[in-house]
Amino acid sequence: MAFEHIAVIGAGAWGCALANVIARAGRSVTLAARTPESASLVARERTSPRLPGIALDPRIDVVAANRVAADRRQVNDAVLLAVPAQDLRIAAAQLGQTIERGTPVVACAKGIERGTHKFMTEVISESLPAARPAILSGPSFAADVARGLPTAVTLAIDDGTQAAALAAALGSATFRPYHTTDTRGVEIGGAAKNVLAIAAGIVTGRGLGPSAAAALITRGFAELFRFGKAFGARPETLTGLSGLGDLVLTCSSPQSRNFALGVALGKGKPTDEAKAESRLAEGAFTAPVLVEMANAKEVEMPIANAVAAILAGRASIAEAIENLLTRPFRAEG
Asked: What pTM, to 2 d.p., does this model score?
């Protein structure tokens, strides 16, 4: 499990950041853009349009994604899928038969697939039966990671030995991956926190104050924890980097696309316009799916429900806030 060569699929902000991480760790890395045009641009400029001013490590080989699938000579010891959650199935399927049995294929997206209600590792399992599905998540902004600022994340693979080996291969002085076998807990934390970050942004955009923001994050985490418990996540995962840690980051910074979407909504921007401007905010896609899955398990998630209702146009922000503030008083838990 040397993991000497690793491929990253997706040359957006997160893909470029992860490619830099792998190069700094001393591994050979191929960065695959999803179109030949994008690959040509990134290879020529040595940067991503989504990370202006941040250079790609010169050791990174930039190609088009179809080259990775077609080149049978290059054996990748691991593949990181740095594409949006709703595109992950297509990106995984494009790898075709090039994945050797047992190779970790790591989802680096935070969401749940619409329509199927599948978690990211389940999508990988269905698309690439030979692969070993994995998930990378945690409190991390692409710009920070790309610059080499200190960051800690969680890597989950159901094989503990393989998880530890890949975490060690990716790790460096400024990028610290903790490892676990709780794949479900890691992907639930990443998906649910995006929805809650939209709610936190609404609170900020509405000018409801830091006390309300703190209450929102705390009660939001209670929802995330209940949902995770219902779907078999471990408590220590939900209270760790990929759960509570990521929630705190994305609920408190305008660098978060989900938080920024919420701020725009809170300031009165029309829902369709705000969603169009924040088309990469995974929480907008995840909110209705999260609520449907919670309802199926009879998990109470009033904040997530409010976000889904606002995004769908079923409730105004004023109505959603009133509904939350007039809920019956109850014991904390």
From this structure: 0.94
